[in-house]
Amino acid sequence: MSNILQRLDLNLLVTLDALLTENNVTRAAARLHLSQPAVSVQLARLRELLGDPLLLPGPRGMRPTARADELREPLRQALAALELAIAPSDAFDPAEATQRWRIAAFDYAALTLLVPALDAIRTAAPAIHLAIVQSVPSQVARAAERGDIDLAFMTGTEAPADLHYHRLFTERYVLAGRTGHPQLKTAPSLAEFCQLEHAIVSPDGGGFLGATDTVLAERGLARKVSLSVPSFLLLSAVLSDTDLVAMAPSRLVCGNDALCVVEPPVDVPGFDMLMLWPERVHRDPAHRWLREQIAAAR
Predict the structure, then answer these.
(1) Which of 108, 143, 186, 284 has the fewest CB atoms found within 10 Å of its own CB?
(2) Could you give the dihedral angle defined by the CA atoms of residues 230, 236, 241 and 246, in that order, rounded to the nearest 10 degrees?
(3) Alpha helices (H) in 161-284, listed in sequence order
């Protein structure tokens, strides 16, 4: 950046444009809604910065110097380009949109949030591209700021504090097993619950303890966890084909004809599901439209 640009106030360029248009300090001041002395002071600063008198006294007011004449059109074009650059974005038209968005979501969020919204999004914006990717929770904020992802879905306890967010819903846990499961014809007692063969989702891999086990341990109890799987999608398949049961998010299992759902005998705290995005897309009309579509379909 040149030394002149580093010293130049943008307001001076606006004043110079008015002076070169009016060739008169008084009329330029009226155009800018400034006092005549204020414009005279700015003209003096311009003369010093540019090393040229710019406007000289003439028989009919002031006349531009050769340097001022050279500046007139480039200055006008530069100010027009700057105004265009900082003007509010045009309204987003989904029918013409061709954006590509990368969304960080594990299978639970993809199934409960993105799948319900997908038909409406594709109908309104048929030329857009959506990529659903997985991201380690601790790396979501950095990936979002780098532009590796545009949107993320996480629980409230996992969400980084430096991203914008919208709370979509609060999830609760229910007890699920296959339809016709002999031990789920009625809601089990706490003792019966602990004797059931349980499956658990461990996204990090191989874990056999979860929120349910924490609550049971506070009562001096424990359950039998026989299987650990890495995804909720796999959990649903396991439950429908075996006599294993699981404490599962209600939105994942309710409405699945292959599964039986009952109230558990233990109250396990649920979780908030959040939609998160970085500052760089916070005001983008296209991204705002995408967020609105997903929130409306939840």
Answers:
(1) 186
(2) 80
(3) 190-195, 211-218, 232-241, 250-253
Relative to beta strand 224-229, strand 197-201 is parallel
**pLDDT attached to residue 84:** 63
Number of H-type helices and E-type strands within the chain: 13, 12
Nearest to 140 by CA among 171, 165, 115, 113: 165
pLDDT digits (tens, 9 = 90+) for 36-86: 999 999 999 999 988 999 999 877 778 899 998 998 888 888 887 787 677
Contact between 97 and 278 under an 8 Å Cβ cutoff? The reply is: no
**How many CB atoms sit inside 10 A of residue 198's CB?**
23
What is the rounded average pLDDT of the residues 241-266?
96
- Backbone φ, ψ for residue 60 (5° rounding): -125, 50
Compute how many other C-beta atoms are within 10 angstroms of the C-beta atom of residue 219.
10
Can you tell me which residue has the tokens 């204020």?
A: 38
Residue entry with tokens 């993105």: 114
